[in-house]
Write a structure and sequence with these properties.
Number of strands: 16
Structural class: alpha/beta
Oligomer: single chain
Distance between the termini: 30 Å
Largest sheet: 9 strands, mixed
Length: about 375
């Protein structure tokens, strides 16, 4: 299954935003659950993981708990790595992750579930490269320059490599202070994956949840990075674009143009990206095409997943996970996240597929 094979629509000249995201927020026309509303659920549902989902989870929890007065949902902002590990250990009923489960993790996850693992996309957002330079509000950078900045090889804002790409900007003689995540993070993995694939000669590190370069500034979680950038003149860092607030952001070079982060640009990148081969029918995972030169595409993105079991030992746990995840991938849930967190919505085809997968959650 490959996104390039899906019928063309909506975006002229590119594959339809079929298996994954639609920035225009089309509603699901293929049936399935429109709201995910079930009512009458009770108890405590524990999830956690990706901090990028923080605002979306706020919206989802508030709305779904309003439909189920007896249910309390806890989503711990652990980061993707700890979210996956605590799901595997059984401490969490479901996890959020900004990277799909690696092959080496799948066996442990399946053992925890006693069968198939569910992995469905729930949230897509650009990763913004945000900066704090006095009197500078626009900045163009290519991947090579970004890589050298975060690897400590470009250390001042008036460096010639930056000036050449910003001829109309007066750059100060100011030290660059790169900011990275202190905790293991799927956002870091996606960001370093972009650098490694688009600028391999300048970035000699593997894509990992832990930031590979020592030094610089660091902060816990998405909100911590955003605050650190805002508090530090000369800072530059990476974070979920929907949570960067008033920070200025870099336009990244894609092909021959510079593109600012946006839901539309992220969706275009997903549209030309292939799905991962060899996965179970309950697993929708995508290999993001970081090297796309599609006009308007923005390849520095995170595609955040929900991870759960297809079957649970306890009926109440199964019902709660099924109900909540059904709401998240429903039209209503996706609209809530788009309005509150600025994310792109699931395309109709993906929403239908995710709804069908989640609807299969049951007790053993």
């Amino acid at each position: 299954m490959n996104l390039k094979s899906i019928r063309r629509a909506a975006v002229p000249g590119v594959a339809a935003l079929a298996l994954l995201m639609s920035a225009c927020g089309a509603s699901n026309e293929d049936g399935g659950s429109d709201t995910g509303e079930s009512g009458g659920l009770s108890g405590n549902l524990k999830g956690g993981g990706a901090t990028s989902q923080e605002k979306a989870q706020e919206a989802w929890k508030t709305a779904f708990q309003g439909q189920n007065d007896g249910l309390t949902i806890d989503y711990a902002l652990l980061g993707s790595t700890d979210g996956r590990s605590q799901f595997v250990s059984g401490a969490l009923s479901f996890a959020g992750s900004d990277s799909y489960i690696a092959d080496e993790e799948l066996d442990a996850a399946k053992e925890r579930c006693g069968g198939n693992v569910i992995e469905v996309p729930a949230y897509i957002s650009s990763i913004a490269v945000a900066f704090n330079i006095p009197d500078v509000d626009t900045l163009n950078l290519d991947a090579t320059t970004i890589a050298k900045i975060f690897d400590g090889k470009i250390t001042n804002w008036n460096d010639q490599a930056i000036a050449d790409q910003n001829p109309d900007v007066t750059l100060p003689d100011l030290k660059i202070s790169p900011v990275h995540r202190a905790d293991d993070s799927g956002t870091t993995k996606n960001f370093t994956d972009y650098l490694g694939k688009v600028a391999p000669d300048a970035w000699g590190y593997e894509a990992e949840d832990a930031f590979p370069v020592s030094g610089g500034l660091s902060a816990e979680g998405t909100s911590g990075v955003v605050k650190q950038i805002g508090d530090t003149e000369g800072a530059i860092g990476y974070a979920d674009a929907s949570q960067t607030g008033d920070l200025n952001v870099v336009s990244v070079k894609v092909g021959e143009e510079y593109v600012a982060p946006s839901p539309e640009g992220a969706a275009k990148t997903v549209a030309v990206s292939p799905t991962v081969e060899g996965r179970d029918e309950t697993d929708i995972a995508v290999d993001v095409d970081r090297n796309t030169t599609e006009a308007g595409a923005y390849p520095v993105i995170l595609l955040s997943y929900l991870i759960a079991c297809e079957t649970y030992e306890d009926q109440a746990e199964a019902d709660n996970v099924k109900g909540y995840l059904s709401y998240i991938v429903s039209d209503e849930g996706q609209a809530e996240a788009a309005d509150f967190a600025g994310s792109a919505q699931l395309a109709p085809e993906t929403a239908s597929q995710a709804q069908e997968i989640v609807a299969g959650i049951s007790a053993k």
